[in-house]
Batch of 3 targets.
Target 1
Amino acid sequence: MKSTLLIIITFLFGTSTFAQTNTNSLNITKLTSNCYIYTTYHAYKGDIASANGLYVVTNNGVVMIDTPWDTTQFQPLLDSIEARHHQKVVLCIATHSHADRTAGLEFYRQKNIKTFTSTQTDSLSKINNYQRAEFHFTKDTTFTIGQLTFQTFYPGPGHTADNIVVWFPQQKILYGGCFIKSTEATDLGYIKEANLQAWPTSLKKVQQKFPQPKFIIPGHDSYASLNSINHTLKLLQQHKK
């Protein structure tokens, strides 16, 4: 009943681009004609926190950015993608070493999905005994899968020393991961590995390099606003005070 009501509301308000499929643990939302946001959930500090990932459907398979945080959703996500699009995931890139980005890397490698992180992320993953990707890139890299071209960009330290963003030029989607905070965020979240001094400069580099995105996807919470980078800068300033 809730899913039906959501579809009706979405239609009435003219936001059919964001039509959703929901389960208790996995939420898939259509962002553009071939790009989808998937959200999973995990217990964090006594509450249930959401984590956003992204996938894009190409004519040569599906590209996934980050893995589910909820380990029970590794296979259901693949099943949902194949049922909806009749395509398999062929590539997965994680945007930094924490489990909300990398937890499924080994699982997907065993499914013959090519998994990638930066060499910096791999070094941290090895040190901290986190999940590691099979392949690595040493610098900003452009990937082409089918008709899709996208690029990774390392802006400098911020949420972590290794955080990267991913830019989809055709769709003008900036995927920020945990480097960018949602406008719903009231604080910076986990900052034990953050570089609070460098983070503002790194954010401004992203703004300069990708000045007019149509969508900005933070690692957690809502992605409805284009003001999330400025909001992150504001949170950093507030924390400094």
Target 2
Amino acid sequence: MEQAQTVSENPHGKTTIDPAEIEKFSAIADEWWDPFGKFKPLHKFNPVRLAYIRDGACAHFDRDRRAKKPLEGLRLLDIGCGGGLVAEPMSRLGAEVVAIDAAERNIKTAMAHAAPLGLDIDYRSTTVEDLAAAGEPPFDIVLNLEVVEHVADVGLFLETAAGLVKPGGMMVMATINRTLKALALAKVGAEYLLRWVPAGTHDPRKFVKPEEAKAALARAGLSVTAEAGVGYNPLMNIWRINEDTSVNYMLTAVKA
């Protein structure tokens, strides 16, 4: 496994990094793999988004999703990878994974968890704009999951991330809609009533409407081909894909 790389200077002087957000997630980096800890909602949510990514990628690249390693031969970038909750399953599905996070503590946690499992994941402590500025070759698949609501410049972030998708490749984005319903459920409910995540995890002013994301992706040369909502069923205690994008939603976009 390669060693984590540190954040470098961006020659253009632009950044998508919000230092307060990096500090927030660095403080709880040791809890990424605790299914009952501060990242419990992501562990519950993970099977839904993993299936969405796998099925979308298999459909786009004409692969059999029932195969043992359906993403074999595809190069994948996981932006804001945290402790590796998505990077590891993507590696097991056969993808060649580069996983980046601006918080070095997250990367160290991810590397420590992957090492004994023998997973060959290229973890790097860097930003998407520094990765692009360094001349990183484009990827077949770029994952942008629960990241845009934590960056300082959404437009720059999506433009830069889109530039790392190779022609014929795809991006999967997951985030939270900027609606009153999302404010009530994803902010007030999840943080203060149910205490699913630490108070202050989300700033509802940073939530992104689907039409805003689509417009930014279109300006960067990507076309949205699929859109889905993700909802929680409290009776069954599971997350499911649905058609309601008013709170959590996922987009698939491709580059011609």
Target 3
Amino acid sequence: MPILNGKIIPVKILDEIAPLELVVLGTANHSGGVPKFEDTHDPKSREPILDGTYPIESDLLIETDQFRDVLEKYDVTVLRPQVIDNLNQIFTRDIGIAIDDRFIIPKVTHNRRKEVEGIRPIIDQIDPIKLLEPHIDIRMEGGDVMPCDGKIFVGYSNKTDWDEYISSRTNEAGVEYLVRNFPDWEIVLFE
């Protein structure tokens, strides 16, 4: 993982579809193989387990390295998580949210919290004043939150039984948190 020469990593995401300058790309190193069906994070992960097509680590390593190469070809700085043995660290988008000049470290389900430690060296390079870390009752998932030209699109759920499900989701408290912390942005909700 490149360190930006001891410099603070800038955060500036105003639009989800703006050209990339810097990205955190997940890693497949030591991902732990095919997970148990009951340990999967989301329903879409269950399908390849059931039909025997779950990707093997060596294939994922090739794909993520090729993706990194393409990004770097277009002068995108690529940061990678610190590898944690036997942990799926492919989906780094879920465990961090960049909006405007701030970075949110969301509270995800208990079985995904170790993934945050993989990006901790990156988080530690962000200006602490620009870091937001919501209370444990405020749930967000990075894949649910998309800034786009003055709007923040949020997929959310008002269900309260978070730990019954392995998928994280953004809850109403997460939506309220975004409203409070980004008052100049229009929040657009999708339940």
